[in-house]
Design goal:
Layout: H1 5-9, H2 16-154, E1 157-163, E2 175-176, E3 184-191, E4 201-208, E5 211-213, H3 219-234, E6 238-245, H4 251-255, H5 266-282, E7 286-298, E8 301-304, E9 319-321, E10 327-329, E11 335-337, H6 340-360, E12 369-380, E13 385-395, H7 409-433, H8 445-449, E14 458-466, H9 473-487
Helix pairs in contact: 3-5
The protein binds adenosine-5'-triphosphate (ATP).
Residues 164-165, 245, 247-253, 365-366, 398, 465 line the site of adenosine-5'-triphosphate (ATP).
Length: 499
């Protein structure tokens, strides 16, 4: 700080006390100044510190800035690297896709060639299939023709004899079956000498049939013989198979058998064969519809064995013949069936219905005929061929003859009905064989019902069932005589119901 000279050494003479005061003023001022300088210095120091701190902050900020700049630079670099890597991957993928595309294009080209070849092959195969179907159809028709010729050669009416085993097994002496010949049966009757002087004489009754089955013959063996006839039913021929014989001779065993596979009879086996064969023919374009019915004829009255309603609501039935000669029964259950099991169910229902009636009337089933019918309609749309036939399987009433004196009332009525219908069956068959102009079908319900299945357009098979007990000798002889008459008949050539 500058001190004014005028103030200290000026022209005006001053007194010493004045000077003293002034000096002390000056000193005070100097102290003030010093204090101020001190505080200014202190402020300066503070400012310096502040400057140093600011400088440090600036340096730090510069460092931070530099770091951030570096970071930004690294980030940019990282982004670039990432971009380059992605680009490389993209280029690589593009390349891979292009490679794959070109591989697939060549595979596609190969496939197209294969497809064209396959299409040609398929069309060639289609032609072959059509040709083979034609051949198969022609083969099937030829098979039917040959099959029918064989059946005709065997005879359109055939008689098989089946001998039931004795209850204790084996066979009685009076029935002889030669081991070398399965077509002959001999009934031997030993007649005692009345005088006792001559030895007993033996009278033999010989019968010949298309086949004689002994007591050991299995159900399978028996069915094998008639399975060809069953095939005829599918080929469009009416087929009728019935079992004739005295009560207990094995008619029901032959026709129905038991539910165990090995012991099944003709009806379940025929049904099985028909459904199997129909399935096979399906591959050749054949479609079949089957309708089953089961009826009982008792005392010349018809009873629906498939009826499921209330007993009190049972309808009455009449046999009707339509203009196209088809025989139907009014109010009867005609059940469409499409499987073997369905038919087996119906057979069970029929048996239940029969046994209900059986309980009400002892032994009734032996005294009634039961007729199972399967109507078969086949169509081959592609070939415009149709066929229609009926397979008729009949378990006849017991054929035993009762003495008129032994039967009265209801029994007499039953006996007359059974004898009437069975003898009329024989009359109808021989009238057909003799080509008589009048065939008395309508004389009994049985022959009227079987009209479509007997005669020119049908194949008939009769089982004559034999009871081997010695006390059945008379009935056995009668049965064999009846069967023998039938066997002598040759019914006119059958023609298939084809349209
Ligand atoms: N070939 C056979 N082998 C073994 N058992 C048989 C044979 N034939 C019949 N039977 C048995 O003999 C008995 C009588 O047979 P089945 O009932 O079939 O006679 P049927 O002639 O039908 O009598 P019905 O007129 O009373 O109905 C049955 O127990 C049956 O199982």
């Amino acid at each position: 700080m500058m001190l004014s000279r005028t103030g200290v050494g000026g022209a005006t003479k001053r007194q010493p006390w004045d000077l003293k005061g002034k000096v002390s003023d000056m000193e005070g001022k100097v102290r003030n100044f010093q204090t101020k300088i001190k505080s200014v210095n202190q402020e300066n120091e503070v400012l310096k510190d502040t400057v140093v701190q600011s400088h440090t902050k600036v340096v730090e900020m510069e460092k931070t800035l530099a770091r951030q700049r570096n970071q930004i630079r690294y980030k940019d670099l990282f982004i670039w690297i990432k971009f380059i890597i992605l680009y490389c991957i993209f280029v690589f993928c593009l390349f891979a896709v292009q490679m794959k595309l070109s591989v697939q294009e060549s595979a596609l080209a190969r496939l197209q060639t294969t497809l064209t070849n396959t299409e040609e092959e398929v069309s060639r195969l289609k032609d072959t299939v059509v040709q083979q179907k034609d051949e198969l159809h022609a083969g099937e028709m030829e098979r039917r023709r040959l099959h029918n010729t064989i059946q005709e050669l065997k005879g359109n009416i055939r008689v098989f004899c089946r001998v039931r085993p004795l209850v204790e097994g084996g066979l009685s002496k009076h029935i002889q079956l030669p081991a070398s010949d399965n077509k002959t049966i001999t009934l031997a009757k030993t007649e005692e000498s009345h005088t006792g002087k001559t030895s007993d004489t033996q009278k033999n009754y010989n019968f010949n049939f298309d086949r004689v089955f002994g007591p050991q013959a299995s159900q399978h063996e028996v069915f094998e013989e008639i399975s060809l006839l069953v095939q005829s039913a599918l080929d469009g021929y009416n087929v009728c198979c019935f079992a004739y014989g005295q009560t207990g001779s094995g008619k029901t065993y032959t026709m129905e058998g038991s539910e165990y596979d090995d012991y099944r009879g003709v009806i379940p086996r025929a049904v099985k064969q028909i459904f199997r064969a129909a399935e096979k023919l399906g591959a050749q374009g054949w479609e079949f519809t089957f309708t089953a019915s089961f009826v009982e004829i008792y005392n010349e009255t018809l009873r629906d064995l498939l009826f499921t309603g209330k007993a009190s609501k049972r309808p009455e039935h009449e046999i009707r013949k339509s203009t196209n000669n088809e025989v139907t029964i009014t109010n009867l259950t005609y059940q469409k069936v499409s499987s073997e099991d369905q038919v087996l169910g119906l057979i069970m229902l029929a048996n239940q219905n029969r046994s209900t009636a059986q309980t009400a009337q002892n032994d009734r089933s032996s005294r009634s005929h039961s007729v199972f019918q399967l109507d078969i309609e086949g169509v081959n749309v592609g070939r415009d061929v149709k066929c229609k036939s009926t397979l008729c399987l009949v378990d006849l009433a017991g054929s035993e003859r009762m003495l008129k004196s032994q039967s009265q009332g209801e029994r007499f009525k039953e006996m007359t009905a059974i004898n009437g219908s069975l003898s009329n069956l024989g009359i109808v068959i021989s009238a057909l064989a003799n080509k008589e102009s009048y065939v008395p079908y309508r004389n009994s319900k049985l022959t009227y019902l079987l009209q479509g299945c007997l005669g020119g357009n049908s194949k008939t098979l009769m089982f004559v069932n034999i009871a081997p007990e010695p006390d059945s000798f008379g009935e056995t002889l009668n049965s064999l005589r009846f069967a023998s008459k039938v066997n002598d008949c040759v019914i006119g050539t059958a023609s298939a119901n084809r349209k």
